[in-house]
Amino acid sequence: MSHPTLEVADIFRHHGHAWRQSHRGHISLGQFKVMSAIERCRSAQLGGHVLFSQACEHQQIAYNSCRNRHCPKCQAKRYTAMTLTADEFIRRFLIHVLPSGFHRLRHYGLTANTNRKDNLARARKLLRLDEAECPVQQETTDKHQNEEQKQEATYTCPDCGAPMIIIETFPRSQQPRAPPIKKDRT
């Protein structure tokens, strides 16, 4: 899969500070957090690891992702070409960030994860449906999901196709702190 030449993170890094300054007081904390997460996504700021292929001795640095649901890199969304000004692009992008206190609808209702099994059983009972008529999907346990994710999470060398191993990890970078304030001792 080819990577786009210009990414959302590039636009945010280049124009985000000026946009936040010009829209001060009109940007929510949620929107600010989304912009900050996307700016740091897959960069040294979030840490990462070094991969090594024992077959061809190829090394590759892989940076950690922000895991934000609005981040196109983390969600692998398809792109469509569009030409917008940076100001209009950022405005349209941040429309999708919900204000504080709002929740996405897919987390509620009969099929919400917390009570899905009980709610569907009750709905079947109220509709007088037999278990044989509505087969229940087997839910995998967290242990099985983690094992499947580990098997899928192998890295392959882009040069030779051999498996790569992690030889080093590095933590997220520390935020620079301000220098200490010198007190006058007079």
Quick structural overview:
With 186 residues, the protein is of the alpha+beta class. The protein has helices spanning 8-22, 29-40, 72-75, 86-94, 116-126, 142-152; strands at 48-53, 59-63, 155-156, 163-170.
List the helices and strands and how they pair.
Blueprint: H1 8-22, H2 29-40, E1 48-53, E2 59-63, H3 72-75, H4 86-94, H5 116-126, H6 142-152, E3 155-156, E4 163-170
Antiparallel strand pairs: 1-2, 1-4, 3-4
Helix pairs in contact: 1-2
- Overall structural class, as computed from helix and strand content, comes to alpha+beta
Percentage of helical residues?
25-40%
Strand content: 5-15%
Between the first and last Cα atoms, what is the distance in angstroms? 66 Å
- Helix-strand topology string: HHEEHHHHEE
Low-confidence stretches: none
If strands are numbered along the chain, what order do they take across the biggest sheet? 2-1-4-3
Q: How many structural units, i.e. domains?
A: 1
Apparent shape = extended
Annotation field: number of helices: 6
Please tell me how large the radius of gyration is.
Answer: 23 Å
Biggest sheet details: 4 strands, antiparallel
Average of pLDDT: 78
Number of extended strands: 4
Output the keywords:
extended, 6 helices, single chain, 186 residues, alpha+beta, 4-stranded antiparallel sheet
Tell me what you see in this structure.
- By secondary structure, the chain is α+β, with helices and mostly antiparallel strands.
- It has one domain.
- The chain has helices at residues 8-22, 29-40, 72-75, 86-94, 116-126, 142-152; strands at residues 48-53, 59-63, 155-156, 163-170.
- Strand 3 and strand 4 (163-170) form a beta hairpin.
- The N and C termini lie far apart (66 Å).
